[in-house]
Amino acid sequence: MADQSNLTGTVLNMKDLVSYQTGSVVSRTIIGKSVGTVTVFAFDSGQGLSEHTAPFDAMVQIIDGTADITIEGSPFKVRQGEMIIMPANKPHALKANEKFKMILTMIRKQ
């Protein structure tokens, strides 16, 4: 794996940027700017994020496995290669019924 202190100008497989850890959710911020963030997550089976809201739209891209995502009470099964947008200020939750990795891109409103 490449030096992870600076990823600029480096070709990487997104799946390799975080590793699964038993009983845990692992995250790594790839880009953190005032206008938004890009974070890679690895969820072990049985892990998740409880229902919450965020003040910004967030796009989830599944890069490994399958995620169960609920937005305003509506369930979605999002698979590797698929994405979903979670709208700002709407309750949402994520659950790993099997382990999965995702990219979370949040764009802050101006």
Describe the structure.
β1 and β2 form a beta hairpin. The radius of gyration is 14 Å and the shape is globular. The mean pLDDT is 91. It has one domain: Sandwich (Jelly Rolls). The strands form two sheets. The chain has a five-stranded antiparallel beta sheet with strand order 1-2-9-4-7, with no helix packed on it. A four-stranded antiparallel beta sheet has the order 3-8-5-6, with no helix packed on it. It contains no helices and nine strands. By secondary structure, the protein is mainly β.
Instruction: Write down the domain tally.
Output: 1
Sequence stretches where pLDDT stays below 50 over 5 or more residues: none
Outline the biggest β-sheet. Answer: 5 strands, antiparallel
In CATH, the topology is named Jelly Rolls
- The coarse silhouette is globular
* Number of separate strands: 9
- Mean pLDDT value: 91
Our Rg estimate from Cα atoms comes to 14 Å
Which helices and strands occur, and which strands form pairs?
Elements: E1 25-33, E2 36-43, E3 48-52, E4 57-64, E5 66-71, E6 74-79, E7 83-86, E8 92-95, E9 100-107
Antiparallel strand pairs: 1-2, 2-9, 3-8, 4-7, 4-9, 5-6, 5-8
Summarize the structure.
The chain is mainly β and 110 residues long.
